[in-house]
Amino acid sequence: xxxxxxxxxxFEETRTRMDEEAAKLGLELAWIRYRELKVVGTDIFWGExxxxxxxxxxxxxxGNELEWSKLLQFxxxxxxIPVVDDYLLSEGPLRRFKSVMSWQLLDAGxxxxxxxxxxxxxxxxxxxxxxxxxxxxxxSKGGRHGMGTFFLREFGDFKDLGEKLVSRVxxxxxxxxxxxxxxxxxxxxxxxxxxxxxxxxxxxKCIGGFKRMPKVEKLVLNQSEGSSVGLSEVPVNVVKVAExxxxxxxxxxxxxxxxxxxxxxxxYLIEVNEAPQFKVFEKRTKINAPRKILEYCINKFEK
Length: 303
Known about the structure:
Protein name: Alpha-L-glutamate ligase, RimK family
Pfam family, one: RimK
Number of domains: 3
Domain ATP-grasp: 102-298
Number of strands: 16
InterPro entries: ATP-grasp, ATP-grasp_RimK-type
């Protein structure tokens, strides 16, 4: 079986682990960067290969490649090509925006923190006057490892947040890069907890998870910081919410972050991440994540 794996940024460890497991399963993975593609008429090629000739497509990430994602969506539908993740053939790549995810989860009745979405820094400043602190502010376009997530203890922290974001934009522009900009902010209530759960689901089913210890509550909440411990068994109520959320969003391969409220004992879903990295997951759980992913792809693509 030949599988096209679409990616934007090359994470060598992820790619190596996927290739190792693919070789054991007798699979051929073609790692295709979006900008290596070309459209000729209504056909899409990678070099001399028409990508409709693959048995299935696995999107490791979409990121800012919205144009290519839309073209691939058209092509997959036209030629009935099986795709992972499902959401790319329904809502499409705009599902990755946190504002869109928030809407879908709340509309489906998933336990999710109280949220509000505004467009500009000025709008954010005005909206924060209506909220109780502490709270969380997220860039709707996201940011790797929580670098687009901010913890505000009090209203005065807004000034520091604004200065940090402006500095980031100036730095990325000076380097000729494209950052997450200064628009699109999701405000969320802060759910006090004793650590967050990272649950991995494949085909909307939990394959395992680990728990990250409480982080130092500082302006930038870097999800990669702090210690974590594997779980021999993920709490049933946590699994239930993670699986429901992945299905609502159509994210077949998901790394879902959840917390249990110290006040109410209820499980709150914080975020669903598409095509998650699995280095820490494998280390903490001893579960072969790439094997699970590839076996799921084989089963879906054969059907």
